[in-house]
Design goal:
The structure holds two protein chains of two kinds.
Chain A: E1 5-7, E2 10-14, E3 19-24, E4 29-37, E5 43-50, E6 55-58, E7 61-66, E8 71-76, E9 85-93, E10 102-103, E11 107-112
Parallel strand pairs in A: 2-11
Antiparallel strand pairs in A: 1-3, 3-8, 4-5, 4-9, 6-7, 7-8, 9-10, 9-11
Chain B: E1 5-7, E2 10-13, E3 19-24, E4 31-37, E5 44-50, E6 53-56, E7 65-68, E8 75-79, E9 88-95, E10 104-105, E11 109-113
Parallel strand pairs in B: 2-11
Antiparallel strand pairs in B: 1-3, 3-8, 4-5, 4-9, 5-6, 7-8, 9-10, 9-11
Classes of the chains: A mainly beta, B mainly beta.
Protein backbone atom coordinates (compact mmCIF):
# COMPACT_ATOMS: atom_id res chain seq x y z
CA UNK A 1 0.00 0.00 0.00
CA UNK A 2 1.13 3.55 -0.61
CA UNK A 3 1.41 6.19 2.05
CA UNK A 4 1.25 9.37 0.10
CA UNK A 5 -0.97 11.00 -2.42
CA UNK A 6 0.36 13.61 -4.80
CA UNK A 7 -1.84 16.28 -6.20
CA UNK A 8 -2.37 16.99 -9.01
CA UNK A 9 -1.85 13.68 -10.82
CA UNK A 10 -0.78 15.59 -13.93
CA UNK A 11 0.30 19.17 -14.55
CA UNK A 12 1.07 20.91 -17.83
CA UNK A 13 2.69 24.35 -17.89
CA UNK A 14 4.73 26.63 -20.16
CA UNK A 15 8.45 27.08 -19.80
CA UNK A 16 9.21 29.87 -17.34
CA UNK A 17 6.09 29.29 -15.23
CA UNK A 18 6.18 27.92 -11.71
CA UNK A 19 4.98 24.41 -10.90
CA UNK A 20 3.52 23.43 -7.53
CA UNK A 21 2.93 19.86 -6.48
CA UNK A 22 1.39 18.72 -3.23
CA UNK A 23 1.77 15.57 -1.20
CA UNK A 24 -0.27 14.23 1.70
CA UNK A 25 0.71 11.32 3.90
CA UNK A 26 -0.87 9.30 6.67
CA UNK A 27 1.53 8.48 9.51
CA UNK A 28 4.16 10.33 11.54
CA UNK A 29 7.48 10.65 9.74
CA UNK A 30 11.19 11.11 10.32
CA UNK A 31 11.59 12.96 7.07
CA UNK A 32 10.01 13.53 3.69
CA UNK A 33 11.88 13.37 0.41
CA UNK A 34 11.09 14.36 -3.15
CA UNK A 35 12.34 12.40 -6.13
CA UNK A 36 12.19 12.94 -9.88
CA UNK A 37 11.85 10.19 -12.46
CA UNK A 38 12.42 10.80 -16.14
CA UNK A 39 11.04 8.45 -18.73
CA UNK A 40 13.16 5.32 -18.85
CA UNK A 41 15.47 6.37 -16.04
CA UNK A 42 15.73 5.71 -12.34
CA UNK A 43 14.66 7.95 -9.53
CA UNK A 44 16.83 10.91 -8.67
CA UNK A 45 16.80 12.45 -5.21
CA UNK A 46 15.89 16.14 -5.19
CA UNK A 47 15.55 17.26 -1.60
CA UNK A 48 15.03 15.93 1.93
CA UNK A 49 13.18 17.81 4.65
CA UNK A 50 13.21 16.57 8.23
CA UNK A 51 10.12 16.50 10.42
CA UNK A 52 11.37 19.42 12.52
CA UNK A 53 11.89 21.65 9.46
CA UNK A 54 9.18 23.74 7.83
CA UNK A 55 10.82 24.93 4.64
CA UNK A 56 13.87 24.12 2.58
CA UNK A 57 15.38 25.51 -0.61
CA UNK A 58 17.68 24.00 -3.19
CA UNK A 59 18.33 25.99 -6.35
CA UNK A 60 14.97 26.44 -8.09
CA UNK A 61 13.27 24.06 -5.66
CA UNK A 62 11.35 25.05 -2.57
CA UNK A 63 9.81 22.46 -0.28
CA UNK A 64 7.47 23.06 2.62
CA UNK A 65 6.34 20.63 5.27
CA UNK A 66 3.31 20.92 7.55
CA UNK A 67 3.36 18.00 9.96
CA UNK A 68 0.10 19.08 11.60
CA UNK A 69 -1.67 18.65 8.25
CA UNK A 70 0.58 15.78 7.17
CA UNK A 71 1.30 17.53 3.91
CA UNK A 72 4.18 18.87 1.84
CA UNK A 73 4.54 20.93 -1.29
CA UNK A 74 7.23 21.15 -3.93
CA UNK A 75 7.59 24.36 -5.90
CA UNK A 76 9.75 24.49 -9.01
CA UNK A 77 10.34 28.07 -10.09
CA UNK A 78 11.11 29.24 -13.64
CA UNK A 79 10.46 25.78 -15.08
CA UNK A 80 12.39 24.42 -18.03
CA UNK A 81 11.53 21.77 -20.61
CA UNK A 82 14.13 19.55 -18.90
CA UNK A 83 11.97 19.56 -15.75
CA UNK A 84 9.45 17.37 -17.58
CA UNK A 85 9.26 14.23 -15.44
CA UNK A 86 7.24 12.47 -12.77
CA UNK A 87 7.74 13.74 -9.24
CA UNK A 88 7.25 11.57 -6.16
CA UNK A 89 7.16 12.32 -2.50
CA UNK A 90 8.46 9.62 -0.19
CA UNK A 91 8.28 9.30 3.56
CA UNK A 92 10.34 7.43 6.09
CA UNK A 93 8.15 6.46 9.00
CA UNK A 94 8.81 7.85 12.44
CA UNK A 95 10.34 5.22 14.69
CA UNK A 96 11.72 3.29 11.77
CA UNK A 97 15.48 2.92 11.62
CA UNK A 98 15.95 1.24 8.29
CA UNK A 99 15.12 4.09 6.00
CA UNK A 100 12.86 2.24 3.60
CA UNK A 101 10.66 4.73 1.82
CA UNK A 102 6.95 4.83 1.19
CA UNK A 103 6.17 6.58 -2.08
CA UNK A 104 3.10 8.33 -3.39
CA UNK A 105 1.72 7.78 -6.87
CA UNK A 106 3.46 10.80 -8.31
CA UNK A 107 2.67 13.95 -10.27
CA UNK A 108 3.43 13.91 -13.99
CA UNK A 109 4.77 17.33 -14.95
CA UNK A 110 4.97 18.43 -18.56
CA UNK A 111 6.79 21.67 -19.35
CA UNK A 112 6.17 22.94 -22.86
CA UNK A 113 8.89 25.00 -24.55
CA UNK B 1 31.37 2.59 -10.06
CA UNK B 2 29.79 5.96 -10.22
CA UNK B 3 26.28 4.88 -9.38
CA UNK B 4 23.95 1.97 -8.78
CA UNK B 5 23.77 -0.39 -11.72
CA UNK B 6 21.20 -3.06 -12.48
CA UNK B 7 21.10 -5.87 -15.00
CA UNK B 8 19.47 -6.82 -17.17
CA UNK B 9 17.71 -3.57 -18.05
CA UNK B 10 14.90 -5.48 -19.73
CA UNK B 11 13.72 -9.03 -19.22
CA UNK B 12 10.92 -10.89 -20.94
CA UNK B 13 9.93 -14.14 -19.30
CA UNK B 14 7.29 -16.67 -20.11
CA UNK B 15 4.88 -17.37 -17.30
CA UNK B 16 6.31 -20.04 -15.04
CA UNK B 17 9.97 -19.21 -15.73
CA UNK B 18 12.40 -18.21 -13.02
CA UNK B 19 14.25 -14.89 -13.29
CA UNK B 20 17.21 -13.33 -11.48
CA UNK B 21 17.74 -9.60 -11.31
CA UNK B 22 21.07 -8.16 -10.28
CA UNK B 23 21.94 -4.97 -8.42
CA UNK B 24 25.41 -3.46 -7.96
CA UNK B 25 25.14 -0.74 -5.31
CA UNK B 26 27.54 2.13 -4.85
CA UNK B 27 30.77 0.77 -3.39
CA UNK B 28 30.80 0.97 0.39
CA UNK B 29 27.08 1.58 0.78
CA UNK B 30 25.78 -0.35 3.75
CA UNK B 31 22.06 -0.33 3.09
CA UNK B 32 20.39 -1.79 0.02
CA UNK B 33 16.70 -1.70 -0.87
CA UNK B 34 14.57 -3.36 -3.54
CA UNK B 35 11.37 -1.73 -4.76
CA UNK B 36 8.72 -2.79 -7.26
CA UNK B 37 7.12 -0.14 -9.47
CA UNK B 38 3.98 -0.99 -11.39
CA UNK B 39 3.03 1.10 -14.41
CA UNK B 40 1.74 4.50 -13.41
CA UNK B 41 2.41 3.94 -9.72
CA UNK B 42 5.08 4.89 -7.25
CA UNK B 43 7.68 2.37 -6.13
CA UNK B 44 6.69 -0.06 -3.38
CA UNK B 45 9.16 -1.44 -0.87
CA UNK B 46 10.08 -5.11 -1.19
CA UNK B 47 13.06 -5.83 1.03
CA UNK B 48 16.02 -4.29 2.87
CA UNK B 49 19.60 -5.38 3.55
CA UNK B 50 22.13 -4.00 5.97
CA UNK B 51 25.40 -5.36 4.67
CA UNK B 52 24.70 -9.06 4.08
CA UNK B 53 21.82 -9.30 6.55
CA UNK B 54 18.28 -9.19 5.22
CA UNK B 55 16.58 -7.27 7.99
CA UNK B 56 13.19 -6.71 6.43
CA UNK B 57 11.40 -8.71 3.77
CA UNK B 58 7.90 -7.63 4.70
CA UNK B 59 7.20 -6.19 1.24
CA UNK B 60 7.89 -9.36 -0.74
CA UNK B 61 4.52 -10.21 -2.30
CA UNK B 62 4.84 -13.99 -2.09
CA UNK B 63 7.23 -16.79 -1.27
CA UNK B 64 8.12 -16.90 -4.96
CA UNK B 65 10.25 -13.82 -4.33
CA UNK B 66 13.68 -14.27 -2.80
CA UNK B 67 16.56 -11.84 -2.36
CA UNK B 68 20.14 -12.23 -1.22
CA UNK B 69 23.28 -10.18 -0.71
CA UNK B 70 25.79 -12.80 0.40
CA UNK B 71 28.93 -10.65 0.59
CA UNK B 72 27.30 -7.37 1.50
CA UNK B 73 27.71 -5.78 -1.91
CA UNK B 74 25.96 -7.20 -5.00
CA UNK B 75 22.37 -8.28 -4.49
CA UNK B 76 20.14 -10.58 -6.50
CA UNK B 77 16.35 -10.61 -6.53
CA UNK B 78 15.00 -13.93 -7.73
CA UNK B 79 11.42 -14.57 -8.77
CA UNK B 80 10.36 -18.17 -9.18
CA UNK B 81 7.52 -19.37 -11.40
CA UNK B 82 6.81 -15.86 -12.69
CA UNK B 83 3.22 -14.72 -13.06
CA UNK B 84 1.77 -11.94 -15.20
CA UNK B 85 1.19 -9.80 -12.12
CA UNK B 86 4.95 -9.80 -11.54
CA UNK B 87 5.37 -7.55 -14.59
CA UNK B 88 6.82 -4.30 -13.28
CA UNK B 89 10.02 -2.31 -13.00
CA UNK B 90 12.25 -3.54 -10.19
CA UNK B 91 14.36 -0.81 -8.66
CA UNK B 92 17.38 -1.16 -6.44
CA UNK B 93 18.64 1.64 -4.19
CA UNK B 94 21.50 2.05 -1.75
CA UNK B 95 22.44 4.43 1.02
CA UNK B 96 25.78 5.03 2.63
CA UNK B 97 24.60 3.89 6.06
CA UNK B 98 21.52 2.72 7.91
CA UNK B 99 18.83 5.28 8.56
CA UNK B 100 16.96 8.12 6.93
CA UNK B 101 19.09 9.34 4.09
CA UNK B 102 18.71 10.07 0.42
CA UNK B 103 18.64 6.89 -1.61
CA UNK B 104 20.60 6.37 -4.80
CA UNK B 105 18.57 4.42 -7.31
CA UNK B 106 19.62 2.27 -10.21
CA UNK B 107 17.90 2.52 -13.60
CA UNK B 108 15.73 -0.50 -12.85
CA UNK B 109 14.95 -3.77 -14.58
CA UNK B 110 11.73 -3.83 -16.57
CA UNK B 111 10.26 -7.33 -16.28
CA UNK B 112 7.52 -8.39 -18.66
CA UNK B 113 5.89 -11.76 -18.08
CA UNK B 114 4.02 -13.11 -21.10
Amino acid sequence: SQQGEEDPQALSIQEGENATMNCSYKTSINNLQWYRQNSGRGLVHLILIRSNEREKHSGRLRVTLDTSKKSSSLLITASRAADTASYFCATDMSGGSQGNLIFGKGTKLSVKP
Amino acid sequence: GAGVSQSPRYKVAKRGQDVALRCDPISGHVSLFWYQQALGQGPEFLTYFQNEAQLDKSGLPSDRFFAERPEGSVSTLKIQRTQQEDSAVYLCASTIRQGSYEQYFGPGTRLTVT
